Amino acid sequence: MSVAMGFAAFFAATFCAIFAVLFYNTATHHAVDFALTYRRVGLPVGLVVLAVSLGYLGSLWVKRHLRKS
């Protein structure tokens, strides 16, 4: 579940960043590289969501197993 959330966050953040760069390039007539959306936006957001969801779901799993004992 955590990995799926990380992938979803990566793709959603990358999608939004691509459109932001597209609008920025159109409005300012600059040529910003679209590869930056993957490296500077999508990857960090995906990794942060992955880490947070692993921590949260992992803590729930540990609590559930400690309660059963």
Description:
- Helix content is 88%, strand content 0%.
- It is an all-alpha fold.
- The longest helix has 34 residues, at 35-68.
Give the helices and strands, then pairings.
Layout: H1 2-28, H2 35-68
Helix pairs in contact: 1-2
Number of strands: 0
* Number of discrete helical segments: 2
Helix content: over 70%
- Assembly type of the shown chains? single chain
What is the residue-mean pLDDT, rounded to a whole number?
95
Major sheet details? none
> Which ranges are low-confidence, i.e. pLDDT below 50, for 5 or more consecutive residues?
none
Structural class of the secondary elements?
mainly alpha
Radius of gyration: 17 Å
Distance between the termini: 25 Å
SSE ordering? HH
Shape: rod-shaped
β-sheet strand percentage? under 5%
In short:
The chain is 88% helix and 0% strand. By secondary structure, it is an all-alpha fold.
Using brief descriptors, characterize the structure shown.
mainly alpha, single chain, 2 helices, 69 residues
